[in-house]
Amino acid sequence: MLALRTSAVLAAAALAIAAAPVHAQDEKKEIEKYQKMLAEGSPVELFELQGEDLWKKPQGPKHASLEKCDLGMGPGVLKGAYAHLPRYFADTGRVMDLESRLVHCMVTLQGRDYKEATKRVFGNADKPSELEYLVAYVVGKSRGVRIAVSTRNPKEKAAYELGRQLFHYRAGPWDFSCGSCHGVAGKRIRMQSLPVLDKPSGARHTYATWPAYRVSNSQMKTFQWRLNDCYRQMRFPEPTFGSDATVALTMFLAVTANGERYAGPGTKR
Amino acid sequence: MDEGRRVILRSAGATGALAVALAAGLLKPERVLAAAWDESAFRQKDVADALKSIGADNAVASKEVVLDVPEIAENGAVVPVEITSHVPGTTSIAVVIDKNPFPLSSKFSFTEGALPYVKLNVKMGQSSNIRVIAEAGGKHYVAMREVKVTIGGCGG
Amino acid sequence: MKSKNVHVLLGGLAAALLAAQLAYADPTLLEVRAVMHRDFHARGQAVMSRVDQDDVQYLCTVTHNKPSAKQVKEMEADQLAMIRYPADGNYMGDWKRGAKIAASGKGMTWKEKPGQNRGGGCYNCHQLSPKQPSYGTIGPSLKHYAKVRPGVDGQKYVFAKIYDSKAFNLCTQMPRFGTSHSLTEQDIKDVTAYLLDPASPVNQ
Amino acid sequence: MPGPMKIRATLKGSYTDIRVLMSHPMETGQRKVKGKLVPAHFIENITVKVNGKTVVEAQTSQSISRNPVFAFRVKGGNKGDKVEIGWVDNKGESNKTEAAVA
């Protein structure tokens, strides 16, 4: 044991050697270590628990819970449901993502008005939105299941194609598309590494760890929010919640991530 | 932390939450055994004073206190810290973050078979040294690492 | 912001003309825009016309940012003509103000009012001051840029590049801060100074 | 009414790994919302008990992250041991929960 009696300041100097400066390659390794330790010690499960309560809580004029909501694998089936979304639903004749499907169940099963159910789709740390809790619970039920999003149905195929076009569509005052940041391998914005999302190598891990709990603001963030905030930073007008365009872009990213074991809800910076 | 682990119930005048909670009958008596909140130590603004307030001003640098923390944190709101003390007879571990407004972050005391180990998430206002101090047999042993806090994301 | 803007409604005569003019035009791009007009909505200063591509955006999208040499030559000249140089011929402003603009990723989103929090977001994509570890790698490093672009010619080039980057590299991911009215002339002079002034941290 | 708490206690060979998740804002007292300072509101004391005996006592402060997560370890341990964890914050609010070692 280093028997060195030093005052606090000297101790700091003596120990400073231990904290060697970090070089570029170490930087990437240290940030990955930060991300790993973050995910290991995450409070995201608290959102899953509260999401389960909401899933089972009778609400709306019909005083019904969401336990019979069909997410594509049969009424109330949760295990692996998210790993197969977005998908075509015959009852609505539309390709739907998880969030638009949950709202559909609020309207049909609970008898709630669409406007009321979507009044506050994005919450905050003090008061998360209903969808943020529900999404945390539902996606958690697909953890470990391989992402398998189909494009067999013509509308699913069309959504995928539209999504790919949207991904590369450059517009707005800054001429950006999704590809501007997520199109070239090995790039980063500030310290933020940027996965290439139109190729499986980049899309798989990223898509498999969204939706996610954001430690920087202690908020559970949904995929609709993720697209919404990206378009804001691309200086575009706002995408309408649950619209075909957002579902198409989600479809493109999900299909690109097919085969990856879903690992959400994730925990991110 | 005095030797005999005798618990001093804060004097009636103290405004500590524990006293208030007790008075309000919120807490069952055995909760009283928990050491009250060491307000004077937690309110020190200077790192040397914070160390002195927990008796760790002349702590000895020791490799037997293992502090695992990433050297870079993408955000200061959550910095994961994992601490293990291999110093025999460790009874408590304290966490000090030099450049935080109040450097003393937390103190953990271990009894009845608990291992001197803790993993927690701390907030850091800026890049800073983190020190963890293990106490064993009335002596203090310290390990320190520097954590660089960056602003993640696109700053937009 | 629009240079030769493509004010075209789906199916309009102009669309047909445009489609004919760009023989390889990809009709689905007009479909994509129609979908965006349906599925997006204006919010604050982020108005719907922002989804209408101008000719540069259209060409770079349809050719996946690899237009033919002929198109590049023609359109870069158009963009160069968009640049308004300072009347007093002085390209350099206050590098301290330029540093703030370079570090700020704000501005032009629906969260800000027009002209408020004008940021260039330079650190998002570039390394600038060697002392700032949080920098991006989408664009080249601009460390010690005064050595790379010395003299008044260097100043003019940097001013122009910030004003309209597409004049020098048609499909670059770098925004056209002047042409899009994201930064004022003074802002651009200040960022130019931050890049080239010997006293600036970029050149330490 | 404080949010949920969750304990996950599992046997790991020579020790029991105890992980606890707590809902709490852990306000530092320095955060401003619309220009007004949000008052300090953070957990001060945490007590961890196994089969009724206190094994860990913690004193924490506003520098612990929001929705705190802690991991502790106890020598040995058996399936079914009762783990109880409780906290008290600077407003006198408290919460506790328990779980059996899996």
Description:
The complex is a heterotetramer of chains A (269), B (156), C (204) and D (102). With 269 residues, chain A is mostly helical. Chain A folds into two domains: 1-41; 42-268, Cytochrome c-like domain (Cytochrome Bc1 Complex, Chain D, domain 2). Chain A is built from eleven helices and eight strands. In chain A, the strands form three sheets. A three-stranded mixed sheet of chain A has the order 6-5-8. The two termini of chain A are 37 Å apart. Chain B has two domains: 3-33, no CATH class; 39-149, SoxY domain (Immunoglobulin-like). In chain B, 52% of the residues are buried. The termini of chain B are far apart. Chain B has helices spanning 17-23, 39-42, 47-53, and strands spanning 60-61, 65-68, 72-73, 79-85, 90-97, 104-110, 117-122, 128-136, 139-149. Chain B is mainly beta and 156 residues long. Chain C has two domains: 2-76, no CATH class; 95-203, Cytochrome Bc1 Complex, Chain D, domain 2. Helices cover 42% and strands 1% of the residues of chain C. Chain C has helices at residues 13-21, 27-39, 55-62, 69-82, 95-103, 122-125, 145-148, 151-163, 185-196, and one strand at residues 40-41. In chain C, α5 crosses α9 and α8 (151-163) packs across α9. Mean pLDDT of chain C is 90; it is low at 1-12 and 14-25. Chain D is mostly beta strands. Chain D has one domain (5-28, 38-100): Immunoglobulin-like. Chains A and C meet through α7, β3, α10, β7 and α11 of A and α2, β1, α3 and α6 of C.
